Amino acid sequence: MPPQSEGFHKVAVLKNHSERVWGLAWNHSGTLLATCSADKSVLIWQTASIEQAQEGLVECGLVATLDDVHNRTIRNVAWSPDGHRLAAASFDDKASIYERLETGWQCTAHLEGHENEVKGVAWSPSGEMVATCSRDKSVWIFETPEERVADKSPRGEEDEYGCAAVLQGHAQDVKAVLWHPEEEFLFSCSYDDTVKIWGRLSDDWGLMQTLKGHQSTVWGLAFDKRGRHLASVSDDLTVRIWERTPAKKTPQVPAKKPENETAAAPKKEGDEEKETAAKEKETSKAEGKVDTPDTEQKHLSSLWYVSPLFRQPAAAGAAAAGTSSSSSFSASSSAPAAASAAAAEDPQKKGESDVSAASGEGKDGKKEEEESATVYDKFEFRPLTTITGYHKRAVYSVDWMSEGSHDRIATACGDNNLRIFKPSKEGSFASWEQEAVVENAHSSDINCVKWRPVPEGHKGPLLLATAGDDNVVVIWRYIPAS
User: Fold this and answer.
1) Residue 294, Cβ neighbours under 10 Å: how many?
2) Where are the domains of the chain?
3) How much is the average pLDDT of 261-277?
4) Which residues contact 68 (CB under 8 A, 6 or more apart)?
5) Domain 8-264+281-478 is classified in which CATH homologous superfamily?
6) Residue 54 pLDDT level (bands cut at 50, 70, 90)
7) With the CA atoms of 475, 230, 421 and 51 taken in that order, what torsion angle do they form, in degrees rounded to the nearest 10?
8) Across the chain, how many H-helices and E-strands are there?
9) 8 Å CB contact between 442 and 468
10) Where are the annotated segments for Disordered (predicted)?
11) CB 3.0–4.6 Å: which of 36, 52, 84, 374 could bond 57 by disulfide?
């Protein structure tokens, strides 16, 4: 194992938040850093140029404090691809869009519809859509007003983001959403231990694939530069790497309403602390082994609800959640509903609802039912490898840096450590090794890690930022070993 902190230098500590810092995001040029916190605020920082950072000069100045819109924890922030707008997701069941004007930052849109805390927000690569996810088990897709797509200049006027789709498929709290970096496919991860891939065929959004393999809550996702590989991190102490491959034709089970569907639980006092409670679930320490396609395969779940719709009252939206769809997407039968429901309700579940990875059989030994149907066969993601044996507690965040000869994965963990992984062999992502670690990078859980964007062909030191339960944001200068 490499020496502690090898290649790392702490270059800035931002202490302006008064409570735990949940998330952070760099704009596309890396000149602005947004951070969000349980103190109900978003802070925007001006950072050093790439040239200054290479010389080790990383000064950060606070340029804006946004604290007059949300009345509960702000869980996540995301910049639009052009860097003109900033989205924030809050535990007050809403998301907001901010725009930079000559007079300062102004909230120009409110995204409403979720029945419980909004946990994640993400912009599509074109900037034409914004996705949100929530404890109500749903993912919403909002469309950016056409005039705002064409005219990106600041206006300071209220914008109306129409709801394009509500995606119901997760059995539990949805933790994060992430768009494919080059195509408009949406990925979501959940307390139900799965990653789901959503796409649009014609005018309908549908569930394309469910990735199973994690044994506990999936907290975060990250892509390599071209979207050929996906990293997912979990409460099960692992990082899983998935590889995009041409899809094989897979029989589809007709869409139907699940027997075990239930409405979102009523809000209770202190629901915003559910994140903290979930973090404290006991997990067994993983062994240092690597799973490959020889020992596991991806699984698909039944498509049972997807609908394009206009915004409607929350009650109406909840009532529509059981609507089935005739959209044709790749799917196969899922595990028995009873087993799935039982596992979803058990915080100590260890994947009992999954089907056999090796044989494609369910727990009862029966082969998955096959019915002839049209399939969506553009691509599929299959398991490539698992990074395990390094993290001592839940892994909450992951980010992937792909630039030049550098492919590095950074992870933020509940053991307070920041880790960097690199491919064991150049040109292959089938095996990874730890390149560096900063022990006790924060004095408490690290909730988020993000690499600073760099220009094409960049050579030299890299910057990354981390956010923690200790109320601070730390910016690190990292020099890869090779």
Assistant:
1) 7
2) 8-264+281-478
3) 42
4) none
5) YVTN repeat-like/Quinoprotein amine dehydrogenase (2.130.10.10)
6) low
7) -40
8) 5, 29
9) yes
10) 245-296, 340-373
11) 52
Q: Which two tokens stand for residue 377?
A: 């066969």
Task: Supply the pLDDT for residue 379.
Answer: 82
Which residue type, as a one-letter code, is found at position 353? S
User: How large is the average pLDDT for residues 287-314?
Assistant: 35
Segment (H or E) for 105: strand 104-111
**pLDDT tens-digit profile of 234-246?**
999 999 999 999 8
Q: What is the dihedral of CA 278, 36, 439, 220, to 10 degrees?
A: 50
Quick check: 226 pLDDT over 70?
yes
251 Cβ contact partners less than 8 Å away, ≥ 6 residues apart:
332, 370, 371, 372, 373, 375
Token pair recorded at residue 363: 């727990």
Residue 13 in tokens: 């500590």
Confirm if 186 and 198 have CB atoms less than 8 A apart: yes
Dig out the tokens for 12 from the structure: 């800035």
240: phi then psi, degrees, rounded to nearest 5:
-105, 140
